[in-house]
Amino acid sequence: MLDSLDATLLARFQFAFTVSFHIVFPAFSIGLASYLAVLEGLWLWTKERVYLELFDFWKTIFAVAFGMGVVSGIVMSYQFGTNWSVFSDKVGPIIGPLMGYEVMTAFFLEAGFLGVMLFGRNRVGPGLHFFATLMVAIGTLISATWILSANSWMQTPVGFAKHANGQFIPVDWWAIIFNPSFPYRLVHMVLAAYLTTALVVGAVGAFHLIRRTAPVRARKMLSMAMWMVTIVAPIQIFAGDEHGLNTLEHQPVKIMAMEGHYESHPDGAPLILFGIPNEKENRIDYAIQIPKLSSLILKHDLNAPLNGLDTVPVDRRPPVFIVFWSFRIMVGLGFAMLGLGLFSLYCRWKGSFTHNTWFHCAALIMGPMGFVAVLAGWVTTEVGRQPYTVYGELLTIDSVSPISAPAVASSLIAFITVYFFVFGAGVFYILRLMARLPRDPMPELVDGPLRTAGINPGLAQQEKSHGH
Hints:
This protein is mainly alpha-helical.
């Protein structure tokens, strides 16, 4: 039965499965590292104990999420050699250095200061500890920069030449790193990470307010998170629109699939809100659409012409159904985040921010939606690039290793089994940590030296005699 499966499709699904598990952890840790830096900075500035309590509460969660992100990333990278060796051979001169720069700059920086941040408060001064926290936060952003540069080059490849054997040879490293889509993707992803973290922090705060536990700390978490959502959500919508315009310029076929435009529209294209893509008949069934709005959004002209998939050979089109719906999930959740931010402003204005149960339930429900939006955005980006691994230059079918379908299927089953057990346990543990109350990180010191070897017999006898 396994021999009848397609090795390329299985390899794609395996990479999609592993990277889907991986991407949620960096998206969370990027935002959480910056949040920790803000919390410690506010504690040093204001000396309000609540910020230090929240820092220690989220520090442990960050450590677990960071560890799972590292482990899932290492496993994912092995597939470049097992399932995608041809891709690695052809683009290695470009992708290899970019991945190496990420390790030498970002990962070394994070690893070097992570231990100080997690365990060094009582061993170094407050200034140095805050510096270590900042370095971890900056390291996560540098990591995102290199990874997104590599991915963006695969979407908009420039600055290279092709060797006679088909290898991509770097010609202009500045053009490769700062390729046309890189700035848009970097801004879009970092903002998505901040929104994802803010929604999680807000959900935890709302959860404790609903349970009426740790009200001071819960209010602070919820308030800080909602300010972030309120400010960043509209910026993200604007950044997403700019990213879409860049995609229209460099990857027009992806936009056609996202918009569901099977047909060209010479006099203005409609915005299809919902429908069911029918790839056999090349149309959107049951379409709910607004005339000419797509032309207005994409070209700022109601009557601007837009090409459709009828101008693209069938074997060069991405899977429209997946791209069409993943894009709508991402956009819909983006506007839901904007709505939550506006709801929080309304509750602040009414003075019901800390006791409006409907608002708290909305914040709790929206807690995991940042992860869903990140995954939907990733699916839109990567599936919309098909049938290429390097857009317009290297087909996916020409990138896969000469490996049999049963071999890929066997490793895929093993990945699914291990991932659900290992990362399921990790996520369960994180949720347990979130459900606990933030504890006082600085208990009162006892009068006298600390004895780590057990009870002092002489002191115990002395206390006994005094008791008599």
